[in-house]
Amino acid sequence: MNLNLYLGFLFSLCTALSYSANINFEVPTWRNGAKAAHTIAHDDYCSGSVPGVENTALPILNERGLTASIGLIAGACKDDDWSKLKKHLAKGHELFNHSLTHVGMLEAGSLKPIAGWNNEKEIASAHQLVKDKLGYAMQFMAYPSDLATPEAKAYLLTQSDYLGARAAKHIYDGSNAGINSANNIDPFFIKNDVYWHDGKWSLYKPAGGNMLIQHVNAALENGGWSYRTMHGVADGSWEAVPKDEYIAYADYLQKKVASGELWLAGPSEIIRYQATREHCPLVLIGNTLKLKQNNELCQRYSSAITVDLHIANELAGRFTQNHKPLPSKQLANGKYRIQFNPILGDLYIN
Ligand SMILES: [Zn+2]
């Protein structure tokens, strides 16, 4: 281990652990102490080109209790799509903004915007349309073909509902593929891997076996977050995933989620978790766990994070936030797990 890594390791230990006489706590890297995180994303919903998302992929996931994120071309959604999307939201799937019309953002390989791209229209009005139709605020953006001008990226930062975006560049060369490491996430440049039959621009090749599973394993091996981008499944869409490969992937995810090794969630939930860990540091003062310091980023991203507490035998293992009991799970003698959003109030432990 080189010195920088060693110091970084010591530093993260010091920030992750805190002690008082009777209690110590730890915020696991991923929810519920999973080893890694993974996101399923299907682009181009509503375009009519990916019927397999609705007819094949989502039923396979729903049967296994798995959730995906669905990228909308909002301007193409019809009444029937909106009512289906309402049901998908109720099942816990996330919706993300994939522009209003999917007009190419720029000439690939240059920073010259394509005529017809307009930030207000493609980003903000798509957002507003989904809000009007579903009462739902999308929080994550994936630009068409993952190509974006610096102006579009800057514009997105001004949109208060947005917490992040899929990594976009001005040229499509696969260099935005990769694994997001837990302690160094740029929420507006979330690396991903796009499914291609032949592995073009992907980190993986078919010779290594099911490429969808290879991407899950890469996260598990690195303790990171892998984000999988796909279009349709078994539907003749652009680089559609064959059904048998998709089923094997879903079965594998189900197994890894059930064993507690993998946290499967939409991008905004994962971004919130990591940002809360990073920007909302906790401190234990006596029997009270609280925010060490509040700040703008903590306010913006804060969500419930997992906190594992080891408490002394003389304490009862009762947790109270704002005078209300906070549910906990006993993991072992004296070890409890809670989901705690620190900006909602201090946690009292007795
Ligand atoms: Zn697309």
Give the helices and strands, then pairings.
Layout: H1 3-16, E1 17-19, E2 23-26, E3 36-45, H2 51-63, E4 69-72, H3 79-90, E5 94-97, H4 119-134, E6 140-141, H5 150-157, E7 164-165, E8 193-194, H6 211-222, E9 225-230, H7 243-258, E10 262-264, H8 267-279, E11 282-285, E12 288-291, H9 296-301, E13 305-311, E14 319-321, E15 324-325, E16 328-332, E17 335-340, E18 347-349
Parallel strand pairs: 3-4, 3-9, 3-10, 4-5, 6-7, 8-9
Antiparallel strand pairs: 1-2, 2-13, 11-12, 12-18, 13-17, 14-15, 14-18, 16-17
Helix pairs in contact: 2-7
Bound molecules: zinc ion.
Residues 43-44, 98, 102, 144 line the site of zinc ion.
Protein model, in words:
The protein folds into two domains: 18-32 and 271-349; 35-259, Alpha-Beta Barrel (TIM Barrel), CATH 3.20.20.370. The chain is an alpha/beta fold and 350 residues long. Helix 2 (51-63) packs parallel to helix 7 (243-258). It has helices at 3-16, 51-63, 79-90, 119-134, 150-157, 211-222, 243-258, 267-279, 296-301, and strands spanning 17-19, 23-26, 36-45, 69-72, 94-97, 140-141, 164-165, 193-194, 225-230, 262-264, 282-285, 288-291, 305-311, 319-321, 324-325, 328-332, 335-340, 347-349. Strands 3, 4, 5, 8, 9 and 10 form a six-stranded parallel sheet that branches. The protein has a five-stranded antiparallel sheet with strand order 1-2-13-17-16. The chain has a five-stranded antiparallel sheet with strand order 11-12-18-14-15, with no helix packed on it. It is built from nine helices and 18 strands. The chain binds zinc ion. Zinc ion binds at residues 43-44, 98, 102, 144. Residues 51-146 form the NodB homology domain. It holds the Pfam family Polysacc_deac_1. InterPro entries: Glyco_hydro/deAcase_b/a-brl, NODB_dom. Keywords: Signal. Residues 1-21 form the signal peptide.
